[in-house]
Amino acid sequence: MIDLRQYIRTIPDFPKPGILFRDITPLVAQPRAFRYVIDCFREHFQDRNVTAVAAAEARGFIFAAPLALELEAAFIPVRKPGKLPFRTEKFEYELEYGTDVLEMHSDALKPGDRVLMVDDLLATGGTTAACLNLAERAGARIVGCAFVIELTNLRGRDRLKGYDVLSLVQYSDGE
Amino acid sequence: MIDLRQYIRTIPDFPKPGILFRDITPLVAQPRAFRYVIDCFREHFQDRNVTAVAAAEARGFIFAAPLALELEAAFIPVRKPGKLPFRTEKFEYELEYGTDVLEMHSDALKPGDRVLMVDDLLATGGTTAACLNLAERAGARIVGCAFVIELTNLRGRDRLKGYDVLSLVQYSDGE
Questions:
Q1: Which of A54, A103, A131, A139 could form a disulfide with A88 if both were Cys (CB 3.0 to 4.6 A apart)?
Q2: CA dist B115 → A99, B15, B64, B72 (Å)
Q3: CA B15 to CA A172: how far, in whole Å?
């Protein structure tokens, strides 16, 4: 058992004033800690017949790619507009100010696929909800969502109600 | 032995007319093929005391993160400006039209580190050369560079002269 908190660096006022940014780069620079994260994710989901591990760029890729290999599942990238070269499905979603768009290849998932969504951080859950929407529109079933960090005060878990949500480290506001 | 070519999709005229884009998303969607890539990289570099595996976002992360875990080395992200939250070193480099900038955390590498640079594709080598510059300025030594695909006609290998460059699939122009 490893206390992951010691490998997460808190940076005040990034990317804007008042935000405490939780930086996972020290964690992935420590092979034992990085390995522990992947092991925790695998142990939780290994008996759930996951066929695909999906993640939004870019930090999500860091955890989703090794996990896909461990689970012998497909790795499915979800990206910003214009990055994926083949036919895509798009999902537009609301941010605090304005909107954002995510894309997934149209042939990335099919009915019968069982998808695990992975990201470094659960904040409001907006990005993850967009990814889940893309996966479900493709006919896939969602096995669950795995996060390294959960910012509990932002209540992203409420937005992901009905899904199996795993997070390894929780912060409430201002820690 | 797996013929990786069958998992690489060629998409004409992406991102602009005249470009044949080599799409690795079918490859990472096949766990056996994805595993084979990581195994090839690991076998080539496993006796070289790699302490850090670095990659530029975002596709580079997909291969570098699992490889870092396999080699029990640090994973070091290199990112577009404004994405890394801590103090960074910057490197500006020339593109066909204009310039681009990449950043690495100032504390990511230190003298004595032995770095393996990873990306999905070696084209002109500009991005990789920028990453190598950042690593060497931090005092690290470069063990080598690993690519899934090499576009031989763009002669990126010439730009990386003096480094151990491994690529698994080579395309010359117009295949």
A1: A103
A2: 39, 31, 11, 12
A3: 42
The DSSP H or E segment spanning A39 is helix A31-45
Q: Decide the pairing of beta strands A9-12 and A88-94.
A: unpaired
Q: By the CB < 8 Å criterion, does B41 face chain A?
A: no
Length of chain B: 175
Cα separation, B69 vs A28, in Å, equals 9
pLDDT at B174: 61
Beta bridge partners of B92: B101
**E strand segments, chain B:** 9-12, 20-23, 52-56, 74-78, 88-94, 99-105, 114-122, 141-151, 165-171
| DSSP conformation class of B124 | S
User: Which of B59, B69, B83, B114 has the highest number of chain A CBs within 10 A, making it the mutation to test binding with A?
Assistant: B69
- pTM for this prediction: 0.97
Respond yes or no: is residue B96 known to be catalytic.
Answer: yes
ipTM of the complex: 0.97
Task: Tell if the CB–CB gap between A35 and B75 is shorter than 8 Å.
Answer: no
A138 CB within 8 Å of a chain B CB? no
Q: How confident is the model at residue B52 (pLDDT cuts 50, 70, 90)?
A: very high
